[in-house]
Design brief:
Bound molecules: iron/sulfur cluster
Oligomer: single chain
CATH class of the largest domain: Alpha Beta
CATH architecture of the largest domain: Alpha-Beta Complex
Order of helices and strands: EHHEHHEHEEEHHEEHHHHEEEHHHHEE
Number of strands: 13
Radius of gyration: 36 Å
CATH topology of the largest domain: Lambda Exonuclease, Chain A
Structural class: alpha/beta
Number of domains: 2
Distance between the termini: 82 Å
Largest sheet: 6 strands, mixed
Length: 406
């Protein structure tokens, strides 16, 4: 039985193929840290340390908090940390963390708005009574305001602020709420709080019992979908902006060739077989589109030419082209905005038992019925009141000239 986590589910939602690489095939790769993840970890660690000391009645000064962050940053930094954004340097991220923690400290000092109950609290979330579907996670900080009024805090270093609608539907903290409801018997209310450290902003939300039940079902369905995909080995890939941070970029079928070309010199790039084929393919595709447009223009001109000369065959040096166009009857109401026109027509064919025969979607039937002999002459004549003759779409067929054509 697999125990899932919010991030595991999120991986599948973002890209099923990445999920397969990470959780099914467990591909052993030299995992790198993105600078964003590195920054997030350092901020989390420093806040955790600060609250741990607060639990022991020792309040850090702001400088102590920032010094702890600086020390962690320097100690943990390594060469395998990658930066996707070319306009930013490591020092820019370092400064973002400093400012974020400084703002946080100013905003919540003296940290007495709530009482911290636990830090990095592990929670197990049972989604069904049988225990078949389970998740686990860690709450950054669990606190209480008044007796039984719990708060679940999550620290974010993302650079995208979200809407209230997003927070009201967010899954992770709501799942943690389900988790703590089985751990503490005195819970009277739970508030979900996200601290967006970079923005110095917080968002709050809460869930009703019904919403939590719905979330359980939705999450079970997602797990079932993942297990189904695993059984069938059916994982598609979803390309997105997140690909730049993907550990499997170099083996992903959507990115492997891109990755290989990124490492090529300009000369190697120009000589690469794949690059050359794609370039030629696009040239041919564009040329074909141009030729198609030209062919259609020639067909229109040929059609006019035939009409003016009253001919159906036009000869060239080696080929001749036959231009055939046959007009067909169309119900008048299809070219009219008047609904009464349609009503009159339908009434007419219904009264004469022709509805099934000529049902309006069967324009072809209508045309062949009027042109054919199955209708009585008077009905045919009356039907002509409801239709008009539309010029046929010309058909073109080219063939090699025969001796007799010269
Ligand atoms: S590179 Fe993108 S598409 Fe490929 S596995 Fe990773 S996230 Fe999915």
């Amino acid at each position: 039985m697999t125990t899932y986590s919010h991030s595991r589910l999120g991986t599948y939602e973002n890209c099923p193929l990445q999920y397969k690489y990470r959780y099914v095939k467990r591909i052993d790769i030299d995992r790198r840290d993105s600078v964003e993840a590195f920054l997030g970890s350092r901020c989390h660690e420093s806040l955790e340390k600060m609250y741990k000391l607060l639990l022991n009645a020792r309040m850090w000064s702001k400088d102590e908090l920032l010094d702890d962050y600086k020390l962690r940053w320097e100690r943990e930094w390594h060469d395998n940390i990658f930066i996707v954004r070319t306009d930013l340097r490591p020092g820019d991220y370092y400064n973002q963390g400093l400012k974020a923690l400084s703002d946080y400290y100013d905003r919540y000092r003296p940290f007495d708005r709530d009482k911290t109950l636990a830090l990095e609290q592990r929670v197990e979330v049972a989604l069904d009574d049988s225990g078949k579907y389970r998740l686990q996670g860690f709450i950054d900080r669990l606190s209480e305001t008044d007796e039984g009024h719990y708060q679940i805090h999550d620290y974010k270093t993302e650079r995208t602020w979200k809407t209230q609608e997003y927070f009201d539907a967010e899954r992770q903290l709501a799942l943690y709420q389900i988790g703590i409801s089985n751990m503490f018997s005195d819970i009277r209310s739970v508030e979900l709080i996200w601290h967006y450290l970079i923005f110095d902003k917080e968002a709050r939300s809460s869930r009703t019992g019904r919403q939590l039940e719905e979330l359980k079902l939705k999450t079970i369905h997602l797990i079932q979908e993942i297990e189904d995909a695993t059984e069938k080995d059916d994982f598609t890939y979803i390309e997105s902006a997140l690909c730049d941070w993907c550990d499997y970029y170099h083996i992903c079928p959507a990115k492997k060739h891109v990755h290989l070309t990124e490492m090529m010199s300009p000369r190697e790039f120009a000589e690469d077989e794949g690059v050359q084929m794609v370039n030629r393919y696009i040239e041919v595709k564009d040329a074909l589109a141009e030729l198609k447009a030209e062919k259609e223009q020639i067909e229109r001109n040929l059609f006019e030419f035939c009409k003016q000369l009253s001919v159906e065959v036009v000869r060239g040096s080696t080929h001749k082209v036959k231009v055939k166009s046959e007009p067909s009857y169309k119900a008048k109401f299809t070219a009219s905005d008047d609904p009464a026109e349609k009503e009159r027509f339908l009434q007419f064919i219904k009264e004469r038992g022709l509805y099934d025969e000529l049902m309006i979607i069967h324009y072809q039937k209508l045309n062949s019925a009027i042109k054919g002999t199955q209708l009585s002459p008077d009905i045919r004549q009356a039907l002509l009141d409801f239709v008009y003759l539309e010029e046929g779409k010309p058909r073109f067929s080219a063939s090699k000239l025969r001796k007799s054509d010269y």
